[in-house]
């Protein structure tokens, strides 16, 4: 999965921000020249007052409010999903412990029912770990695992007639406790799936992207009417810059700074190279920084919209530990009673779920190589 998934951390890294800022800095003079014909007929004072006094503040405030509320809403959604998933796993693990106790108390048909119940609980962990929301909803309609648990516990409550009274009473108490955990699982699963579907409307992202665009455009218009920045790396500018550089080098040689081995001449030539071939302008740097920050904010709220696959995703350490513990206990029970066939069936089911998950990730990332047989 790590090989197939896009590394979302790259979209928040320093190198990514530097690349974005550098690209914006290079494009800034070109954007100014594209906007120049349209703003040339507008009075500079009127344009400045309109942008800084009326247009830009409204955009900035609206963007800040909408972005902050969107990020807060998505983060709260992740926290609610985290709490529901952890609580669901707690009830699931308690249910596994109770069923394992029933295995020791029952025999024959009752014990076989317990083993089947443990397989159902194993498949439930597969849903939590690998299934998508759509797949889980489809499975709940076709073959709901919680319904299987209810039926199995109802069957276990009718213990064999030859079971001792003390054992029968203990089985009834255990199945009664297990039934309460199953009811809690049903409630928590419904809440988790409902909260997972509470995504931000796509129109909110469209509005945020539009506001970001107009904020950048307003800055370009304002700076264009005031002054056009020099364009780096053009054929004409390269020729002129090369001529100036040769003149500067000749002056340095005549003064003897290079021949004397001093660093002043080399530093003078280096500063000339930077200033001539890559002119530094403050407005371009501000535009680059603003573009990088707006894009990082966009990546953040788009990433939060994917609570199970983004970089700032739901914390899975506790959940993974619980699922691993549940499977270890079920596998230990199967090994204790030499039911290696049931254990192999559970592992095969998990492998199929993993391949299904990889196939979905591969489809999302347009990969052609299939790691599954």
UniProtKB/TrEMBL annotation:
Alphabetized, the UniProt keywords read:
Membrane, Transmembrane, Transmembrane helix
Write down the InterPro entries for this protein, in alphabetical order: DUF4239
Membrane-traversing stretches? 12-31, 51-72, 199-222, 284-301
Which named protein is this?
Answer: Uncharacterized protein
Organism for this UniProt entry: Lotharella globosa
């Amino acid at each position: 999965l790590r090989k197939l998934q896009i590394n979302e951390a790259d979209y928040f890294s320093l190198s990514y921000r530097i690349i974005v800022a550098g690209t914006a800095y290079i494009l800034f003079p070109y954007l100014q020249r594209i906007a120049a014909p349209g703003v040339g007929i507008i009075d500079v004072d009127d344009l400045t007052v309109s942008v800084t006094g009326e247009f830009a503040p409204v955009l900035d405030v609206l963007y800040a409010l909408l972005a902050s509320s969107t990020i807060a809403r998505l983060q709260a959604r992740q926290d609610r999903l985290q709490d529901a998933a952890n609580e669901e796993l707690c009830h699931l693990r308690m249910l596994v412990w109770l069923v394992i106790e029933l295995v020791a108390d029952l025999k024959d048909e009752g014990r076989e029912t317990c083993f089947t119940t443990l397989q159902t609980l194993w498949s439930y962990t597969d849903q939590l770990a690998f299934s998508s929301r759509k797949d889980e909803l489809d499975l709940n309609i076709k073959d709901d695992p919680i319904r299987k648990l209810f039926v199995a516990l109802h069957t276990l409550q009718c213990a064999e007639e030859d079971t001792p009274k003390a054992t029968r009473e203990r089985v009834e108490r255990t199945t009664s406790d297990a039934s309460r955990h199953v009811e809690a699982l049903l409630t928590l699963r419904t809440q988790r799936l409902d909260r997972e579907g509470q995504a931000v409307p796509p129109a909110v992202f469209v509005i945020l992207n539009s506001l970001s665009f107009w904020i950048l455009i307003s800055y370009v218009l304002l700076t264009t009417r005031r002054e056009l920045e020099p364009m780096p790396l053009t054929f004409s500018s390269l020729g002129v810059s090369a001529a100036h550089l040769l003149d500067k080098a000749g002056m340095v040689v005549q003064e003897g700074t290079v021949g004397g081995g001093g660093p002043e001449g080399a530093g003078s030539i280096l500063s000339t190279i930077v200033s001539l071939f890559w002119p530094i302008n403050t407005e371009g740097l501000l535009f680059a920084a603003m573009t990088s920050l707006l894009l990082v904010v966009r990546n953040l709220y788009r990433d939060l919209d994917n609570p199970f696959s983004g970089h700032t995703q739901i914390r899975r350490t506790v959940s993974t530990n619980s699922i691993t513990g549940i499977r270890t206990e079920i596998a230990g029970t199967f090994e204790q009673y030499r039911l290696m066939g049931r254990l192999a069936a559970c592992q095969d089911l998990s492998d199929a779920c993993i391949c299904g998950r990889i196939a979905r990730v591969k489809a999302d990332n347009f990969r052609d190589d299939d790691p599954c047989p």
